[in-house]
Amino acid sequence: MSTTTLPPTEKTQPVAAPRGTISDRSRAERKLGWLLAGPAFVVMLLVTAYPILQALWYSLFNYRLTDPENRSFRGLGNYAVILSDGLWWQALLVTLFITVVTVVVELVLGFALALVMAKALSSIRPVVRAAILIPYAVITVVSAFAWAFAFRIETGFVNSWFAWLPGITADTDWFGGQWTSLLVICLAEIWKTTPFISLLILAGLAQVPDVLQEAAKVDGATWWQRMWRVTIPNMKAAIMVALLFRTLDAFRIFDSIYIMTAGANGTESVSFLAYRQTIARVEIGLGSAVSVLLFLSVVLIAFIFIKGFRIDLAQARGEG
Amino acid sequence: MSQREKTWWIVGGILIVLYALFPIAWIVSLSFKASADIANQSFLPTSVTWENYATILTGSASGLFLPALRNSFGICLIATFISCVLSMFAAYAIARLDFPGKRLILSTALGVAIFPVISIVTPLFNLWRQVGLYDTWPGLIIPYLSLTLPISIWTMSAFFREIPWEMEQAAQVDGATTWQAFRKVIVPLAAPGVFTTAIIAFFIAWNDFAYGISLTSTEASRPVPAALGLFSGASQFEDPTGAIAAAAVVVTIPVVVLVLLFQRRIVAGLTNGAVKG
């Protein structure tokens, strides 16, 4: 399939001090650069690198907060316990399921929303834009409560509204089973995060050169052909960035599950498992090991995306 | 565009507005239901009551809710302020100065942005207990920086790259020092970008639940999302649904106001940082 893209153009670099003229000045600039950016850099490292190293260390111990006297070194024992336990694999599967379902639906829905926003008349555009920002800005916990209350038998309206559908009665307990619980969790996640994707896609759409569209139109390409061969190939970078961020975000799902099911009925995600081990059961050693595994999974996903799909994030962000 | 096509796009726009506002309308409607009305199986209350708002603002749940609201505002504003100041300097250096390590700083920000919060919570939970930061404001402000700093650095660098830097050079030609040029010329130009970044950082801090629920235990520092999570477990009132809905509406008001006032800037900030750069 042939695609139409413009040849890459030279990026204009930010005006840099003329090289090799005054080395004192460039050295001063280098120093000033680190002086200004250093504090932010150090804080970022302190709040993440330090805790994860600490977690790595704790994960090697049998360490229960309520029983600190019996803290003992057990090497990779915690990892063996977790990886041989069905709980971890169940949580991983649930997390992957939620990630794949939400990201795929969000991408398609987000694209549709972006197309409508791109075409929306300037008179209603501010209204649509403000509306779409609301799910993004609403607290995840609030969104989770709204969806949970809508579906719960005791508080909701969904059952009475959709009673005409086969299988739905006034007593349909959405949170009573795994699949229906996951469905509602996915719905809440999709509602909350599709706007973010659609805004990124909208920005990507705006970057597709009009000349290409016009040229394809003149050549008699249909709407679908223009979409698949001109628009999408030209905004691949924007789509990939949106996809990467949402996938990693979805994989870390915690808030909605905590609020809606608290992990009941096989809806526990990896993040929730780590939380439950550490905070609820104060098994610092085991919880830390789950945290490290969660971290490694996220790194792996990012690696697959960046290497596998060849996303140059820096380039996509105009750094190149 | 034909009239017919126009109509379809308008219908599409209306559908988007409905999509975005429907769950919000539902939680607002729920917050006006009396406790006997909660189970009425319908979207709207049979009669509107303010009793849920009374419960959270002056009644039995106010002891849980009001301190949480104060904590949320205080902690989020301080975390936003600190991360904006730090990233303002960092973004200036990244957008303007030529020094090795720029890429390293941006990649680190990216790495921190994708970091699973729960992986940080586990060790912090233990560490904060040992050093006495558990259940304190700084105990939340510090980890919140891991949420707000990366996006602030990215967004602000993107904004700063669009600033006409020749003006800074012009000021320097006129005899201003680098610092003076920065403070007198660049700061006013950069202010809109900084402001937008602050709003986005505030949203992210305001949204936090995982740190809030794990690193606090009392009204001393518990933020609103964590308090909402506890409403359901608390037995101080019989049916927490209406109270939760009312509290959810109250914490949604600030973000809705910010969205309505600054929607154009927020969209620019979100997409500049992520796509254009």
In words, what does this structure look like?
The complex is a heterodimer of chains A (320) and B (277). Chain A is mainly α. The C terminus of chain A is likely disordered. The radius of gyration of chain B is 23 Å and the shape is globular. Chain B has a single domain, classed as MetI-like (MetI-like fold). Helices cover 76% and strands 0% of the residues of chain B. Chain B starts with a helix and ends with a helix. Chain B contains eleven helices and no strands. About 2% of the residues of chain B have low confidence. Classes of the chains: A mainly alpha (320), B mainly alpha (277). Chains A and B meet through helix 1, helix 3, helix 4, helix 5 and helix 6 of A and helix 1, helix 3, helix 4, helix 5 and helix 6 of B.
Brief characterization of the structure:
The complex is a heterodimer of chains A (320) and B (277). With 320 residues, chain A is mainly alpha-helical.
Class derived from helix and strand content of chain A: mainly alpha
* Average pLDDT figure of chain A: 82
Helix-strand makeup class of chain B: mainly alpha
- Regions of chain A with pLDDT < 50 over 5+ consecutive residues? 314-320
Q: CATH homologous superfamily of chain A, by name?
A: MetI-like
Number of strands of chain B: 0
Notable characteristics:
heterodimer, A: 320 residues, mainly alpha, MetI-like fold, two-stranded antiparallel sheet, 2 strands, 68% helix, 1% strand, disordered C terminus, B: 277 residues, globular
SSE arrangement:
The complex is a heterodimer of chains A (320) and B (277).
Chain A: H1 23-58, E1 61-62, E2 72-73, H2 77-83, H3 86-119, H4 125-137, H5 140-151, H6 158-161, H7 178-207, H8 210-218, H9 223-234, H10 236-251, H11 255-260, H12 270-280, H13 284-308, H14 313-316
Antiparallel strand pairs in A: 1-2
Helix pairs in contact in A: 1-13, 2-13, 3-7, 3-10, 4-7, 5-7, 7-10, 8-9, 10-13, 12-13
Chain B: H1 3-31, H2 51-57, H3 62-96, H4 102-113, H5 117-131, H6 137-161, H7 166-173, H8 178-207, H9 210-214, H10 224-231, H11 241-276
Membrane topology (chain B): Multi-pass membrane protein
Keywords (chain B): Cell membrane, Membrane, Transmembrane, Transmembrane helix, Transport
Subcellular location (chain B): Cell membrane
